[in-house]
Amino acid sequence: MRALLVGLVALLPLAVGNHGNTVAERGGPALIIEGAGAGHGVGMGQYGAIGMARAGFSFRQILAHYYPGTTVVRLPRLPRLAIRLGAKVRRLPFERYVAGVVGAELGEGWPLAALEAQAVAARSYALAAGGGRRPLPAGAGFQAYSPLRGSGPAVRRAVEETAGEVLTYQGKVAVAFYCASSGGITEAVQDAFPGSRPLPWLQGVPDPYDFGPYHRWRYRLPLAVAKRRLAPYLKGRLKGIVVLRRGVSPRIVEALVEGSGGAVQVSGEQLAEALGLPSSWAYFSLSLGGRTIPEPDRSGWQPPGGERQAASGGTAAPSRTAARSGR
Does a structural domain hold residue 181? Predict the structure, then answer.
């Protein structure tokens, strides 16, 4: 489980800035980066869940799509939680904590089904992480939490109508990872967090209803800036970035930072963090003398099954007909 917990630091709340569409200063040699999504991409995409809710899907259908093979179960009793806020530890009822998470991660103004799906995912995530047995962090590195944002009527309704409900897989509470935006395809947990064991409900699915500021993004970094950001992995002069392997989605699992003094292998997470990217779903080109030259990609990535349409903005799955099948 330790490897899984590494992924907690990659969770991004929905209420983040629109920096994913930023294009740096133009002119001169530059590294062009085009990509999609925000966060690790594992589990439920928050923007995609909102899109599904707007299309008429219930929260149970949303959860079944993002976490295939899981079952929603209502637990008769939940423990009180200890939340670590800075240097202080505060104890509070479980459902009050869930409301604070839903309010901080999504908030008022979104469809009820999306808020309900977030409530069940947040409840499951906290329990799977040991809620009730040890203090849980609040904020960076874990689920966002705000008691004030959890007091709105829509958030309270979503929490009350799903009270005690969690995701289970084969009778055990399932860890329910989620991210801000999948970019159109979610990622397999073992590819997002190398060293993690595969989990059947976190294996990557098409996310055709994903939208928002992170659905597609583009950066143009002057080469001097790119060199500075890649300095920990760069030997000599920057020659380029070669992608070796991608996951279920186009997110980078392994790549090479090539310098005049040799190549250094990095993970997709290391590369995205160094370059300041919203996610590791990235493609690289060099802009030199008015020409744009794509960097080598040896991954051979191909969209599995219906994900080809999802990757290009289509609606491969789930079908809109399913939205009429009730709660």
Answer: no
Q: What is the pLDDT of residue 21?
A: 38
Q: Examine residue 326 and state whether it is found in any structural domain, yes or no.
A: no
Q: Looking at residue 237, what is its pLDDT?
A: 93
Task: Write down which residue in 176, 193, 220 finishes a domain.
Answer: 176
Same domain, yes or no: 49 and 160: yes
β pairing state of 291-294 and 88-92? unpaired
Same-domain pairing of 26 and 69 = no
| DSSP codes joined into one string, 125-172 | HHHHTTBTTBPEE-STTS----TTGGGSHHHHHHHHHTTTEEEEETTE
What is the per-residue pLDDT for 85? 83
Peptide bond into 79 cis (omega under 30): no
Which stretch of 93-107, 214-228, 234-248, 309-323 has the lowest confidence by average pLDDT?
A: 309-323
CB 101 within 8 A of CB 122: yes
Nearest Cα to 160, choosing from 151, 148, 169? 151
| 217 and 295 within one domain | yes
Return the closest-CA partner of residue 39 out of 11, 66, 19, 72. 11
Residue 325 gets the label, from left (phi > 0), alpha (psi -120 to 50) or beta, of alpha
Write out the residue range of the structural domain in which residue 279 sits: 1-38+206-317
Is pLDDT above 80 for 6?
no
What is this structure's pTM? 0.85
Shared domain for 242 and 292, answered yes or no, is: yes
Domains held by the chain: number: 2
